[in-house]
Structures are given as C-alpha cells and as structure tokens.
Amino acid sequence: MTWLRLLWELLRKDFRLFLADRPSAVLCFAVPIVLASAFGAVFQRPARSYQLPRLPLRIVCEDDAPLSRRVTASLCDNPQVDARECSRDEAWRFLEKESAGAVLILPRGFAAGACWTG
Asked: Does the model's pTM come out above 0.85?
C-alpha cells in the first residue's frame, strides 16, 4: 500500500466516524456560522453617513511653552474632539455640569518635563 492510499483510507475512516454522529457534525458547522453572525451584528461598522459624536474636552493650559501651545492648538483643531481652552475654574464647572467629557490640564513645566530624556 502506498502512502497516498494509506492517507486516503485514513481520511475516509475519520470522515465516516465524523458523519456517524449527525448532531455533532451539524453543530461543527452551525456553531461557527452562528457565532460569526452574532459577532458581525454586534461589532458591525456604522454606515458611512453615521457621524460619531465629538468628545467634549476642556483644556487648561497653564504652561506658555511652545510645545504646550502646539498640543492645545492641535487638539482644538482636531475634528473628532470638541476641545476648548479654558481656565481651571471653568473646567471644574464644566465637569460638575457634565457638559465636558474630560478635562486635560497641562501644568506649568509640562513642556520641560515632556522633553526631559534623562
């Protein structure tokens, strides 16, 4: 018996054993299809016309360094974030009213600490 014939007989025997238990054979193919469909329904991508809500963000920039200004400007220019610069007191008021999703505080010395490499 050649090795191809032996392999064929082995596959045929295993396939017969697999199909002998019909409910298990059906479940073997049905469960992955059901799971893939369920995950596809849960994690589907929204339609292209769907606009994601913009994150309301208040930025308190207490540092006048160029890096801090650039971080603030880039966040304010980001179309996915509704960022506005404000004072620390205004930021706390926004948080208390729950009109801000988050507050980012850039303290004095932020740029110096961010650029420190030692």
From this structure: no
